[in-house]
Amino acid sequence: QVQLVEFGGGLVQAGGSLRLSCAASGSIFSINAMGWYRQAPGKQRELVATITTGGGTLYAGSVKGRFTISRDNAKNTVYLQMNSLNPEDTAVYYCNAAVVVSQKIYDSWGQGTQVTVSS
User: Mind listing the pLDDT tens digit for each residue in 7-48?
Assistant: First the structure.
């Protein structure tokens, strides 16, 4: 019923930038919080950043000041601008959204997009 599709991953050198986007589609009434998580090889998935419908944001300490999360509610899309990337940011990045469908909230995930930062 709900699909999240991420775009924008890739290979970048340390110090570079990437912008991820994630668009939600399907039988959506509304979307509450949206966010980005990442999972590096051999590690657990961790929170990167979240954003509420009203624009309130929360960042992991490791990315604060370098990453910026934003959203376009009209397009059901969330973005992650990543600057000053370093090799420790290498991971698969997943989009997450609390999607309201027929008065129920579904915790939805994208398929993930690989971000690789070379030193």
Answer: 999 999 999 999 999 999 998 889 999 999 999 999 999 999
Beta carbons of 34 and 95 less than 8 angstroms apart: yes
Please choose, from the candidates 88, 86, 91, 93, the residue with its C-alpha nearest in 3D space to the C-alpha of residue 21.
93
- Nearest 5°: the CA angle 57, 16, 115 is 70
In whole angstroms, give the CA distance from residue 7 to residue 73.
Answer: 17
Q: How many CB atoms lie within 10 A of CB 44?
A: 7
Distances (CA, A) of 33 to 26, 73, 95: 17, 11, 11
For residue range 64-96, list pLDDT tens digits in order.
999 999 999 999 999 999 999 999 999 999 999
Tokens representing 60 are: 């992991």
